[in-house]
Amino acid sequence: MVNVFWIHGGACNGNTQSFLNADEPTVIDLVTDFGINILYHHSVSMEFGNQVKEILDDIIEERTELDILVVEGTVIQGPNGTGRFDTLFERPKKDWIYDLAHKAKFVVSIGDCACWGGIPATSPNPSESTGLQFFKDKPGGFLTSEFRSKAGLPVINIPGCPAHPDWVTQILVAIATGRTSDITLDEYHRPETFFKTFTQTGCTRVQYYEYKEPVEEFGQGTRKGCLFYEQGCRGPMTRSSCNRILWNRQSSKTRAGMPCIGCTEPQFPFFDLAPGTVFKTQKILGTIPKEVPTGMDSLSYSTHAAIARTVAPKWAKEDMFVP
Ligand code: SF4
């Protein structure tokens, strides 16, 4: 039996909604096939009130072993560092999170808010929100960089707004089945198996990216063209497997005509690039984007783009649809 406690901080509950839609494996599979015992989850457990307090006390006083602590949402530290904006049983939730994290064998952050603070931590951050071990892209966060769970690992970050449900259930299964040596983390503590490649990998528009053929208007789902040039798609600079492990097993943002908004990166929602919106295109000078794909400088990129467009074959400009 692998005991899991899921705690919810400052967030919209989107990661729970995503988690409940997992396919491979499903939440039911976690319980019936992989030995996961959900001690408490606010949306699926029958326990409430003092029953939840008893579960918490049993973990803190070490009558119950906590194998995996899952945190969804930011750690709210306001006002003035007291945490009184977000309490559970008359106690700041941040204190519960601190105690639980130090009892758990593994700590897993689900979604941007828990990983790096996400939207609630965006300036001016009135709730004094932070992620568990990062504040945006800066190491530290609530638990500090030195934190290691009882199994000796830092917080395992599964970002996204929300995180893809299969990323969550597959990491829980890896832990539950003792395959933690398979979990290699990147510099932001994201499992490489889901976050090593760019969102662009597997995108059905990538040939139009190469020949610099844009989609002119937002929301042109199956219309040909790349969403980078006019719609500000962040696929070439975002690490995620959204186009390899499809959402609902059938689609992704870019397949639906929606630019990638970079929601698995610590700096999300990039309000500095697009004040007040996450949708604004990044280009500033004609077709030269403000940001260039990771690994390129802007001069090389602009040169490459100009040549690519000049030599684009006829089919790249034809009025077609992409799957
Ligand atoms: S739509 Fe986005 S992810 Fe797809 S090829 Fe264009 S820039 Fe890359």
Automatic annotation (TrEMBL):
Binding-site residues for [3Fe-4S] cluster, renumbered to this chain: 242, 260, 263
Positions bound to [4Fe-4S] cluster 2: 203, 226, 233
GO biological process: anaerobic respiration
Location of the Cytochrome-c3 hydrogenase C-terminal domain: 195-269
Subcellular location: Cell envelope
Example of a GO cellular component annotation carried by this entry: cell envelope
Cofactor: [4Fe-4S] cluster
Keyword terms, alphabetized: 3Fe-4S, 4Fe-4S, Iron, Iron-sulfur, Metal-binding, Oxidoreductase, Signal
Top-level taxon: Bacteria
EC number: 1.12.99.6
List of residues binding [4Fe-4S] cluster 1: 12, 113, 161
GO molecular function, one term: metal ion binding
Annotated ranges, domain NADH:ubiquinone oxidoreductase-like 20kDa subunit: 12-175
InterPro entries (UniProt xref): Cytochrome-c3_hydrogenase_C, NADH_UbQ_OxRdtase-like_20kDa, NiFe-Hase_small_C_sf, NiFe_Hase_small_N_sf, NiFe_hydrogenase_ssu
Coiled-coil intervals: none
Family the UniProt entry places it in: Belongs to the [NiFe]/[NiFeSe] hydrogenase small subunit family.
Assembly description: Heterodimer of a large and a small subunit.
Protein name as catalogued: Hydrogenase small subunit
Source organism of this protein record: Ureibacillus thermosphaericus
